[in-house]
Amino acid sequence: MAGITLTSAALAALPLATLGLLADTEVCVLPERVAIVGLAGGAREALAQAGSGLMASLDDGEELTLIVREGDLARLQSLWPEAQTEAHYRLVKLVATLPWNTVGYGAAIAAALAEAKISVGFLSGYTTDYLLVRQADLETACAALAGLVREAGRRIV
Question: What domains lie within the chain, and their CATH numbers?
Answer without folding.
Answer: 6-25+96-156 (3.30.2130.10), 32-88 (3.30.70.980)
